[in-house]
Amino acid sequence: MHAGGRSVAAGRHDIRSALVVVQVAGSLVLLIAAALFAGSLRKAGQVKLGFDPDHVPADRRGVRESIVGRMERHGGRAVLHTAPGEGTEIELVMKR
């Protein structure tokens, strides 16, 4: 059997070759993506957590107003436990 001057077996060989090329290309894409992700995780692990609230400029009112201010307006309090490089914990206390 010939299809346009070529045998059916040759057509199947072309399809298999194309599938192999697609599979190799997909594997390379996944390998590169995994390497980039691993690099991002490594960098994220080196980020220094926490901050010193005394060094936050007065015009940056995020924690001061959105958390501490709201808690105080509603009869509660917010206490920041923080140290540069150690992370930040905010303790919220509300009377019942």
Q: Would you kindly provide a written description of the structure presented here, covering whatever features stand out?
A:
By secondary structure, this protein is of the alpha+beta class. The chain has 2 domains: 2-45; 53-94, no CATH class. It has helices at 8-45, 62-73, and strands spanning 2-3, 6-7, 76-83, 87-94. The chain has a two-stranded antiparallel ribbon with strand order 1-2. The chain has a two-stranded antiparallel sheet with strand order 3-4. The N and C termini lie far apart (87 Å).
Give the spatial strand order of the biggest sheet: 1-2
Radius of gyration: 30 Å
- Please summarize the sheet with the most strands: 2 strands, antiparallel
Total count of helical runs of at least 4 residues: 2
Strand and helix order: EEHHEE
User: Helix proportion of residues, in percent?
Assistant: 40-55%
Brief description of this entry?
By secondary structure, the protein is of the alpha+beta class. The protein has helices spanning 8-45, 62-73, and strands spanning 2-3, 6-7, 76-83, 87-94.
Outline the fold blueprint:
Layout: E1 2-3, E2 6-7, H1 8-45, H2 62-73, E3 76-83, E4 87-94
Antiparallel strand pairs: 1-2, 3-4
Essential attributes:
two-stranded antiparallel sheet; 96 residues; 2 domains; alpha+beta
